[in-house]
Amino acid sequence: MTTVLITGAAGMIATELRTRLSRKFSLKLTDIAPVGVLSEREQFVAADLTDTAALDRAMAGVDAVVHLGGIAVEEAWEKIMPANVAGAYNLFEAARRAGVRRIVVASSNHAVGFFPRSEMIDDRVLPRPDGRYGLSKAFAEMLGRLYADKYNMEVFCIRIGAMTLEPEDVRRLAIWIHPDDLTSLVELGITAPGIRYEIVYGMSDNKRTWWDNSNALRLGYRPKHRSEDYADAIIAREPPRDPNDPAEIYQGGAFVTAESVIHRKFATDHKR
């Protein structure tokens, strides 16, 4: 049976994936936090992404990696850099040393958060991160590109939208992904033949999307959930929003206005 290493295994996304992936794969879980009760097909190995020796031990007997580890929100650079930037590099290096070729990278919609919602984007656009967190995810994508080209590794990057059982607001009608659909994408990243380097969007079948996810469909992704099923109820309960707010104009939402300089720049640009 294929053994898959999952980093960040104590996190919300990993917890949902574990339940589903353990039906098909043997899972080796790593985190600096407790991961809860283990199933028959799970084992836990404590590993910090800054600890290269621990990562080397975690890679033993692994066939593929799902890299979810790191900080998952906007934070100070002093926290983002070691966990998300150096941590991603350490993870790829440990995989390379162990001969593990297939890596599924949990990227984020915030790697492209400064594209306007009026623009449909696909897997070929250059990153436009909306903060330090998004920057770290863009780095992870480029790190994967380097290791695919230089070391012949197989890298599958998923720009994850918002994974919940139901979309929570109007913005998420565009970027929502059900855990079942994200599991399908991750399984695709683990098992699809002929992968060299791919970027796909982590979204369900969303009518209101800003993303052209044809690359995922080309590779065999078939989402089963639709955000439009929840649209009427969400729109009815959500209060009106200011259409001139940068958080309503750009795909990254509130992440683009996380610091006041963004508000000032936006106001200045639109006075010209």
What do these coordinates show?
This protein has 272 residues and is an alpha/beta fold. It has 10 helices and 9 strands. The chain has helices at residues 12-21, 52-58, 77-98, 132-151, 172-175, 179-191, 214-218, 231-237, 246-249, 260-269, and strands spanning 3-7, 26-29, 42-44, 64-67, 102-108, 154-160, 162-163, 176-177, 197-202. A 7-stranded parallel sheet has the order 3-2-1-4-5-6-9, sandwiched between helices. The chain has a two-stranded parallel ribbon with strand order 7-8. Helix 5 (172-175) links the parallel strand 7 and strand 8. Helix 3 (77-98) packs parallel to helix 4 (132-151). The model is unreliable at 260-272 (pLDDT under 50).
Largest sheet: 7 strands, parallel
The overall average pLDDT, rounded, is 94
| Percentage of residues in DSSP E strands | 5-15%
**CATH-level-2 architecture:** 3-Layer(aba) Sandwich
CATH class: Alpha Beta
Rg from Cα: 18 Å
Under CATH, the homologous superfamily reads NAD(P)-binding Rossmann-like Domain
| CATH topology description | Rossmann fold
Q: What is the number of E strands?
A: 9
Main sheet strand line-up: 3-2-1-4-5-6-9
| Share of residues in helices | 25-40%
Indicate the low-confidence ranges by residue numbers.
Answer: 260-272
Number of structural domains: 1
For the structure shown, list the relevant keywords.
272 residues, alpha/beta, Rossmann fold, seven-stranded parallel beta sheet, two-stranded parallel ribbon, 10 helices, 38% helix, globular
